[in-house]
Write a structure and sequence with these properties.
Shape: elongated
Oligomer: single chain
Number of helices: 6
Length: 126
């Protein structure tokens, strides 16, 4: 495998028009985080010590019922943004970095471009 090359690049959304499949996949991710509760859940899970949070740590933060929190977690999990593991009676959730990074990469270089800030992007060749 060749060493990664670093090059300035633009955000995927500004580089070329999105194809139908890519747009549908990204729309699913964006819809999943477009809800304030789900966005907060994602943030709580990602910032929790150890990188994972027990559902028992999440339910008390909101003034919502446990089934409602479970619904929001299911939406995030179905979108692939989080994964969970049952341990006894509790489920522990963690962020799926590759999927969350797709959202971040969608606009980050575009924002830097608007500020005339160079952005380094690693390109891996196989």
């Amino acid at each position: 495998m060749a060493a990664p090359a670093t090059a300035q690049c633009c955000a995927p959304i500004a580089r070329e028009p999105l194809g139908e499949t890519a747009a549908a996949e990204l729309a699913t991710l964006l819809k999943a985080v477009a809800d304030p509760v789900r966005l907060r859940l994602l943030s709580l899970i990602g910032s929790h010590p150890g990188g994972e949070a027990c559902v028992c740590d999440l339910t008390g933060v909101f003034d919502l019922t446990a089934p409602t929190i479970s619904h929001h977690l299911k939406v995030l999990r179905t979108a692939g943004l989080i994964d969970g593991e049952r341990r006894g009676t509790w489920v522990y959730y963690r962020i799926v970095p590759e999927v969350v990074n797709r959202l971040g990469a969608l606009f980050t270089p575009l924002a830097a471009k608007a500020q005339n800030t160079p952005v380094d992007v690693e390109l891996h060749t196989v």
